[in-house]
Prior knowledge:
- It is a single chain.
- The chain is globular and about 40 Å long.
- By secondary structure, it is α/β, with parallel strands linked by helices.
- Helix 1 (18-25) packs across helix 5 (144-155).
- 30% of the residues lie in helices and 33% in strands.
- The longest helix has 13 residues, at 94-106.
- It has a single domain (5-155), classed as Rossmann fold.
- A seven-stranded mixed beta sheet has the order 2-3-4-1-5-6-7.
- The chain has helices at 18-25, 69-76, 94-106, 124-130, 144-155, and strands at 5-12, 30-36, 39-52, 55-61, 81-87, 110-115, 135-138.
- Bound molecules: guanosine-5'-triphosphate and magnesium ion.
- Residues 12, 14-20, 39, 41-42, 63-64, 115-116, 118-119, 140-142 line the site of guanosine-5'-triphosphate.
Amino acid sequence: MDPSRLKIVVFGSFHAGKSTFIQAIDPGSRHVDAECADGTTTVALDFGKAEIDGKLIHLYGTPGQERFEFVRQIISNGMDGAILMVDCSCGVDEFTRNLYRQLTDMEVPLSVMLNKCDLSGACPAMVRQELEGAMIHEISARNPGNSLEALQRFVGTINKKR
Ligand SMILES: Nc1nc2c(ncn2[C@@H]2O[C@H](COP(=O)(O)OP(=O)(O)OP(=O)(O)O)[C@@H](O)[C@H]2O)c(=O)[nH]1
Ligand SMILES: [Mg+2]
């Protein structure tokens, strides 16, 4: 692996905020979406770039719909780190729990991002309790500064020699 380049993949349930996060990090990011009832949904992937601590970060977003499992498998190939995006105004669903288990079993560096903390119904404490032991960052993906800070902190923990 090229130590100056990190592939980080963003997972999470439908509408957790994966694409919004990547857009916040890289306003020039690309998104393959389709229209859905309340906006758009990712049907292939998101791709954005950032430079953090002299490292080139390639950020890939996955689709949140269960039927796109094959896409998640392809995108995860060779990842150096994973982000699990959780909408903390909804709590932890079964899909998120499964993703958490899978990613933990893979022993890939993992950050759980508790998203939508700007909403009055957000309950990050409840999600923290469920995913005890995880490296957790509380964010609002609608806030680019806050999102970048969380990504920087996560990147700082990834061992480049993996
Ligand atoms: N209030 C609030 N809304 C957010 C936040 N992040 C995302 N959203 C909204 O949540 C909805 C879904 O966001 P997306 O970024 O498309 O979610 P996604 O996880 O990529 O969704 P899929 O690709 O369908 O799985 C959009 O309407 C966003 O504007 C946040 O931090 N706060
Ligand atoms: Mg998306």
